[in-house]
Amino acid sequence: MNSYQRALITATLFALLSCTEEPRQDASAISEISAKVDALDHQIKAAIAPYDWQLSLDHHRMAQKENAYTPPAIATLFSDPEVNSIILENNDQLIALDLPFKLLAYSEPGGDDAILAYTSAEFIASRHDLPDSLLVNYSEKLNSVLNLVDNSTISEVETDLIEKGFAIVKIKSDFDFGTTIEKLKATINSLPDTIWFGELDFQDDANKLGIELNPTRLLLFGAPEPGAEAMKSTPKLGLDAFCQKLLVFEDEGGAVWAAYNDITAFSDLYYAKATLPQRVIKRRLKSTISNTLEQK
C-alpha cells in the first residue's frame, strides 16, 4: 500500500469518527470566542513584530477550509537565531525540538475565554535536563513578548511531571543528512492531505554567528483535516503537536536522526486522555517516517 492509499484510508476513518463526535458550539458562540482569540493573536503579532522569522498557523480556519472543525486556536512561532544558537552550542541537538519560541492563543471546547499557552523555559529545562542559566536569554526574550499581551488567562504546564526525554520519539535514518532531508520533504509533499509550512536551519543560523553546530534542521508541516479531528476536544495540542515539528540532525558520531513529539503523550499531559484520531495520527506519522528513512 502506498502513501496515497494510506492517506485516503486515514481520511475516511476521520470522516467516520467525526460523525460520532459531540456537537460543536453554535455559530454565534464560535464567532464570539473566535473574535477573542483573534484579539489575543493580534497582540502577539504586534509584540513579535521585530523578529525576522515568524510563522502563524490558524488551526480553526485551516480546518474550516477542509470542512472540518476544531475550536478557535492560532499558533505563532518566531525565532531569535542568537538565542537558539547559544542554547544548542555544545548541547544535545534534541533541544531544538522545543525551539524556536511558540505561543498559542486558543479556546477550550465550550469555553468563552481566550487562553494563552507557550513553551516555557522551565518546560525546556525539565525535558532536556538543562541548567536554568542556559535559558536566561530565552526567558528574557519570551517575557518581553508576554509582557505586551493579555496573559490574564494562561494555561501552564506542571513541569514536575516532565522528565528528561519526555514524549520524544527518535527514528534513526539509514541515509546521510542531505539525503534524509530530501527524502522526508519528498514524502511530506506527496501526501494529498498535508501542507508544507517551512523549515528552520539551526546550523546555518549558528554558523552566521560564528558558532559551530552539526547539521540540525526543523521541518514544519501538517494535515489540517486529521489535525482538526485530533484537536477537537484537546485544542492545547496546537502548541506541541500541530503543526508537526520534525527535527532532523546529525549527531557527534555521524548518525542521522529524525525526532518529533508524541501526540498522545502530550494529550495525556494536558487532558489526561488520548483519543482515537490522535492514535491514528501517531501510527501514521511513525510508519511514514520509518518507511522513508529505511534503506530498502
Give structural notes.
Helix content is 43%, strand content 19%. The protein is an alpha+beta fold. The chain contains 11 helices and 9 strands. The chain has helices at 3-18, 27-47, 59-65, 81-88, 121-128, 136-146, 177-190, 202-208, 224-231, 263-271, 276-293; strands at residues 53-58, 73-79, 101-106, 115-118, 168-172, 195-201, 216-222, 244-250, 256-261. Helix 1 (3-18) runs antiparallel to helix 11, helix 7 packs across helix 11 and helix 9 crosses helix 11 (276-293). The chain has a single domain (3-293), classed as 2-Layer Sandwich (TATA-Binding Protein), CATH 3.30.310.70.
Please give a handful of descriptors for the protein shown.
296 residues; alpha+beta; TATA-Binding Protein; five-stranded antiparallel beta sheet; four-stranded antiparallel beta sheet; globular; disordered N terminus
What is the level 1 CATH name? Alpha Beta
Question: Which sheet architecture does the biggest sheet show?
Answer: 5 strands, antiparallel
Strand content: 15-25%
Structural class: alpha+beta
The CATH architecture term is 2-Layer Sandwich
Mean of the pLDDT scores? 91
Record the strand order, biggest sheet: 5-9-8-7-6
- What string, H for helix and E for strand, traces the elements in order? HHEHEHEEHHEHEHEHEEHH
Helical fraction? 40-55%
Number of alpha- plus pi-helical segments: 11
Dominant shape: globular
